[in-house]
Amino acid sequence: MSISMLMCRLRQPLINVPCSGKKLSMRQIQKEKVVLVMGATGTGKSKLSIDLATCFPSEIINSDKIQIYDGLDIVTNKISKEEQRGIPHHLLGTQNPNTDFTAGDFSDCSTAAIDAITSRDHLPIIAGGSNSYLEALIDDDDYKFRSRYDFCCLWVDVAMPVLDSYVAARVDQMLRSGMVEELRPFFNANGDYSRGIRRAIGVPEFDEYFRREGFADEETRKLLLERAVREMKVNTCKLARRQLGKIQRLRNVKRWEIHRVDATPVFWKRGEEADEAWRKVVAEPSAMIVAQFLYKAKSDVNVVSGGFRVPAGSTESVMAAATC
Question: What is its EC number (predicted)?
């Protein structure tokens, strides 16, 4: 059976309940499905969520605690409208940048978004690197989430030395794309970077640069800029390690079932070769994992959509690229 035949069947049809003679929706007795895409910064979580959403009827909920704020699109590496490819996104750039959006706020808003998405027979895909948000949502004190939803976790992983190089190159690209001018309005003369979007990596690192650029000579400004960029790279790599540690804690201590997909080979390549590697080692294995989660798929399933295809009968070879 082809997944394309099941694209709009995220829920089962109505069934008869003999004891009452009434029809009862399977939604009332089966949990809704939710997919989580996790990973350290820079690993391709947004890209994978878009790939999955083109394969299954889905909407995406952002779980990055900085991208949730309006502003700093370059610094926070927000996915652009073009990159979103028409897929609806929730909690992306929606919050006042001067306020704090807590884990509790995220739980409330994401739950409301999940309910709205499932009411449209779509699959909610939660994507982002803020694992404290995800933990607050899923392991809530009242067990509300787990009582209502089944969830599938995908972890896009990249070897740290490889990711460090990529992160450094990405910061350089941010600089070329106008990062300094984007950051300038967020400079705080009082030095308070503890609230809202000003906690973003890049804002505090450029504090000294903005304080001194007006009266420093050209050589000093250059050194200040280089120092700020260097600190951004170091702190982003530190963030990636903290995120990785939290994922490992959720997996090994809290015993979450998390499917690890190793994207490292993609980052060794460039251009079309990188695109092909992504399809083979990340997109297709992840789509198969989600298909099995949604439809209890077997080895004769085809995943056909969004420009890639998993051949029937290839489940074992495809799944070998993912480590559960």
Answer: 2.5.1.112
